[in-house]
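Good day; I would like, with your permission, to put a structural problem before you. A protein sequence and the structure tokens that stand for its backbone fold form the material at issue. The record follows directly beneath this note:
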Amino acid sequence: MVRDGEPRYRAIAADLAAKIHAGHYPAGAALPAQRELSNAYGVTLMTLRQALRELSDEGLIVQQAGRGTFVSPPHLAYRLGSLRSLADDLREQGHAVRTVVVAAELGTSPEFGPGSLRLERVREFAGRPSVHQESWVPPPHAETLLGVDFTAVALYAALADIGVAVARASETIRPSALRFPSQRYLHEPAGTPVFVSERVTYALDGTAVVADRAVILGDAMEIRAERAASGLSMTWSGTTESNVTAQ
């Protein structure tokens, strides 16, 4: 209902917000096309877009160029103290995660040299590509893992299956802007805010067994840390980067 003196776009925003909270438009669902909504509410496209801008500012919707307007998914939590695969961590939180393998091939790693496994994956959440990840595994484990179905098996689990237990990881997370090649897989405009995670994982004997780089859409993930007297060491560098070591 429109109150006396209330701008029309705010009434539309309030009505759409109520429908989102009531589950009429569930998380990840597409809203009707803008022209369809403007006709339904009997307003111009300009008025409707003001309403959508207000919902976007509140974090209730995301507008994807060329695709439409979607209800924001609940935020994924990137847990700094966890020493599990990203997919396993998110599934434990109750999220459905789909993994698309872009490449699984032998190549030359900047960290490990030739004969390394390059594993490139895209993580989709609520039907939306949210994480672009590239992992390198050194020889002699690289060839052994070539035949693994990484759409169904986490990298850490595959390593455990061949007798490699991970003990710790050193990770740096920094804010950045989306650029090629990640832009190609995450389907967002260049310059979209992202987090970039760079992690090196070590086995029990101290040797590095995975070098990993993940680009995470900034509006799809929130970063959480469980603080204790020991177990998680965090050092802050400047105002734009955090170096995180999980122990």
